[in-house]
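Sharing a chain and its predicted structure for anyone who wants a worked example. Both blocks are below, sequence first, tokens second.
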Amino acid sequence: MSKYVDSVLKNLKAKNANEPEFIQAAEEVLLTLDPVLKANPQYEQNAILERIVEPERVVIFRVPWVDDTGKVRVNRGYRIQQNSAIGPYKGGLRFDPSVNLSVLKFLAFEQVFKNSLTTLPMGGGKGGSDFNPKQSPHTPGKRCSDAEVMRFCQSFMTELFRHIGPDTDVPAGDMNVGGREIGYLFGQYKRLANEFTGVLTGKALSFGGSLIRPEATGYGDVYFAENMLAKRGETFEGKRCVISGSGNVASFAAEKLMQLGAKVLTLSDRSGAILCESGITEKMLKDIMYLKNVTRGELADFAKKTKAVKFFKGVNSWQLTDKIDAAFPCARQNELNGKDAAYLLKHGCTLVGEGANMPSTPDAIDAFVKAKIMYSPGKASNAGGVATSGLEMSQNSERLSWSREEVDAKLKGIMKSIHDNAWESAAKYGKKGNYVVGANIAGFTKVADAMVAQGVC
């Protein structure tokens, strides 16, 4: 580690000591940048690292709303506007009890480099609230009603709308923010701003959404992995794959893997994980998507009705079967630890494609890199979602709607470009095959050059 990186990290830890996720994300990037910093002294001269780890703006606000019993509830809302050097802030909104400043700052920081890698003109941001749509505040075991979610979203947007705009900050959905929530948020923005613009992505097709957007992150993860395999002359045909999560990212990653001839063995949620040794079928996957998106149930409920699957309460997907070719962590941060990594490697895993944001812990990443398997960090392999959000923004600006085939082809091309850029950047700095180093350097360089060109701002 160079003296410059060491100094920046020490200062960062001192100023943000109570933000472990943010520090972890910053360390993961900065510790790989020594070669590019040495080759480009202007970055240190312009204090790029000090500036890039500091958000340009952090907005924190209260969100008062009324539940179905008439009781006033109060949540906390956030928007982190991390970096706008290459375009308007772009990043999702997350509604979950785990949301806090550290989590959102790590997500916004990752988003800067992810968006840079897409080649599209988008800066990085993230936001959300500690609101939990999966738990009614007045009835244990029940979810919030649609009316409660609507009232919360309207209150949230009543403050957020003054900080966003199609050329300033364009949020999207993230954990627990799907089509329903985006619809309510967009409606309130339109009402307050008195304009119909592409200020949110992930919208329904009826009011400016893009085909392939729900599928994009999962599909993109698999497209990136397909490019990694191609470097070794391999395909997904017959490969046994384990996946964590069961939301859009996991479900559509499973769908694409099945289309490419792979066998998907696992999915998971907060209740536990399911295993189907013969491979999850298309019918099972459709039933799971309906369960998650319509009835909003848990895999435990699905397992009770499906004899072909085994359900494991309170565990993840990584240690359920003894023959694994590829793993796709698609749930949440730090879900795959060093012990999980050791198990995967011991049982034949040669590819890990991250579909979630920072799902692998540092010791797991070290294990994958040392084993020299095909390992893609989330900032590269899960960039398909924000890439397609960028395509939605383009369609909104042009008042056009592209076909499913057009969007999918553009997504596939973007993921190949991200893969090739990461591969070439790693090779350029003597780390051939190391997608962690390659993605970090490729994403960082574009943003850093823009910051240098724009002066101290």
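Comments welcome. Residues 137 and 350 are 44 Å apart (CA to CA).
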